[in-house]
Amino acid sequence: MSQKATNWMKLILLTGEYADVHFMRISAHKLILKNASDVFKAMFRFDANKERTENANVDSHVEVPDVEPAAFKVMLSFIYADDLSELDGDNAMAVLYAAKKYNIPDLVGPSLKIPIPKLRNVFSACAQTRLFNLEIYAENG
């Protein structure tokens, strides 16, 4: 395979562009999610009646295409165990997005307190915080 073709293959693997099969599955518990977020509570409210009449062993499948899997896992670790050990400069803005999307305000602050030099893309971080009307505090730099 030529170098150009190899580079293109690496790019589509990295970005997921043109992908037609997905292998990521992240398991969670509706009860815990509903207690952590009014967004999850509303999302799963309509499942309650359906679950009573269907087989309880059947898992629900929820697609979350706009949240990076690593950020979703950080959010779940925070919800379940108040654990932020995987929050870092590479995923802070994606975690911030997830925290805002699912209305988990206690996760917003830590996402903003990543030191600016450790952020993967400072310009993207500034743009995203402006989108959410948030400030990156000067003492973080």
Automatic annotation (TrEMBL):
Entries under SMART domains matching the protein: BTB
Superkingdom field: Eukaryota
Domain BTB: 9-88
Pfam families: BTB
Protein name: BTB domain-containing protein
Species in which this protein is naturally found: Heterodera trifolii
